[in-house]
Write a structure and sequence with these properties.
The protein is an alpha+beta fold. It has helices at 37-53, 55-60; strands spanning 16-24, 27-34, 67-74, 90-91, 94-95. Helices cover 24% and strands 30% of the residues.
Length: 96
């Protein structure tokens, strides 16, 4: 089951977190959340490095490489049962 999260910019809310968002095609998933933008940017850089290092593996598995971005998100906007996403963006051959 794929979870798509709409991330509308949120300003001035105590409930605001920073999300690292993974995108593959038209699908977007919150990969991880952080209390600060700097922490989210560091995680995005790490995830991009992992995708770069495993690009050959992704090609041989016919998996598209996820793109990562950082956006504000409210805790209430996270889907129930949300869990962090692996760095390469998929498990068992599916983008999750």
């Amino acid at each position: 089951m794929s979870q798509v999260v709409s991330l509308n910019p949120v300003r001035g809310s105590d409930d605001t977190l920073w999300a690292v968002v993974a995108s593959v095609g038209r699908k977007n998933r919150v990969a991880e959340i952080y209390p600060s933008r700097n922490a989210a940017l560091a995680d995005r850089a790490w995830r991009e490095q992992q995708v770069s290092e495993y690009s050959g593996f992704l090609r041989t598995c016919s998996q598209p490489a996820p793109r990562y971005s950082v956006a504000p998100v409210r805790r209430a906007d996270l889907p129930k049962g949300w869990k962090p996403l692996p760095a390469l963006g998929f498990l068992r051959g599916q983008f999750i």
